[in-house]
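Subject — a protein and its fold
Fields — amino acid sequence, structure tokens
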Amino acid sequence: MLLQVITAIAVLLTTIFIHGTAVMLLFHIGRGPLTGSRKLAGYARLGITCFFVVGFVIAHLIEIMVWAVVYRLTGELPSFEEAVYFSAITFATIGYGDITLSPEWRLASAIEGVNGILLFGWTTAFLFKVSEIWFSRRDAHGENARS
């Protein structure tokens, strides 16, 4: 069981690093449009939001794939397609139960579920902050916007 917990924690840290990199990259790319966002039309704001959402979906898919690779390499699941499916429903905490891991690896899937909740929460917090910037009287640097 110790091997499985250590492996799961290593994957968890890997996905946190991936997500942190995605957050920094998306913010860096979107910083310019966010700074002048009060001047942008609604459709431009929607386009920027779609950019962020697609970026985060890609990050989540990569994180799901990392978990799937581990399940496949450990021999827990017979095919990569099944490993990706299992990882996706576990990461998203859907958990249909039609595919399960062996008793010795079940704890790893529980850790993946916690991992997914945290990373989806991080994504939500970022998107909320973006919308807060757009609809507040402060700009992206926290300074009062001039009317």
User: Anything to note?
Assistant: The CA atoms of residues 35 and 140 lie 5 Å apart. The mean pLDDT is 88. The two ends are 61 Å apart (CA to CA). Residues 2-135 form a domain with the Helix Hairpins fold (CATH 1.10.287.70).
